[in-house]
């Protein structure tokens, strides 16, 4: 059985008592531990002849001993926890289970948004829309914000018109992206996504973008296709939509929001929404918040929007976890 250098190292470490294996791995860098762990995870049952051959190569003193070596994720877990401790070990295990970031979409999700925007600048708006539709919403919103205004409009419009993409629809784009990313030093790996754009994806992106930018893009959609723009609005979740929450859900949200964020977010908001917050707090907490708002000086609009977006992000996560219900949005309304 022909083994690579990494596989030989993995077999040798697995053939040692745990304490000895730990000592060897303690002398490795985190990158080396990551590589050897991936190799161990891929190993199956190793025959005795192969193990002996590996040990003879590494250490002739062990040539007459028999060993039973088996890899797998459990062995990786035991070794990593012993070497790195539970906290770092869990992080590395999660990374191992997810696999290396070598697909074009994973690579673009990890890149700086400004770099991705520059990378996509010369692409056709339809191609940009397809590419961005495959990225996570937060990264996509940052990238769009760095595109030229006229490109933003075209990309958002084309994304809203996209449906779910069938397998194989992105193969040409993937190959092109992989070639360009590879030239930049990125890893190569093919991945076919079945995700896509559409009204919900556009609404999610606009939710995460600065309010003035999202308003301009919605105005453009209104001009191009008013029914489409209305569909996007129905799916959007704005700070004012917190009024749609029942009191129990609202109180759950309040427990997850910091006082500083709440104070900034409420600056200059609608009185009805402020009252919604006040009535779901204790009398003392509500009074203190009122006083703080009255004493608060001018606040940048961008700071208010940032605080509101932070609270909305918490609300969306709580809703996704089933901890709260936000009524009246999209097709998932509840019947009371």
TrEMBL record:
It comes from the Bacteria. Residues 221-326 form the Flagellar motor switch protein FliG C-terminal domain. Keywords: Bacterial flagellum, Cell membrane, Cell projection, Chemotaxis, Cilium, Flagellar rotation, Flagellum, Membrane. It is a peripheral membrane protein. GO terms for molecular function: cytoskeletal motor activity. It is found in: Bacterial flagellum basal body; Cell inner membrane. Its main location: other. Residues 113-187 form the Flagellar motor switch protein FliG middle domain. GO terms for cellular component: bacterial-type flagellum basal body; plasma membrane. GO terms for biological process: bacterial-type flagellum-dependent cell motility; chemotaxis. The keyword Cell membrane applies. Transmembrane segments: none annotated. Pfam families: FliG_C (PF01706), FliG_M (PF14841), FliG_N (PF14842). InterPro entries: Flg_Motor_Flig (IPR000090), Flg_Motor_Flig_C (IPR023087), FliG_a-hlx (IPR011002), FliG_M (IPR032779), FliG_N (IPR028263). Residues 2-105 form the Flagellar motor switch protein FliG N-terminal domain. Belongs to the FliG family. FliG is one of three proteins (FliG, FliN, FliM) that forms the rotor-mounted switch complex (C ring), located at the base of the basal body. This complex interacts with the CheY and CheZ chemotaxis proteins, in addition to contacting components of the motor that determine the direction of flagellar rotation. This is Flagellar motor switch protein FliG.
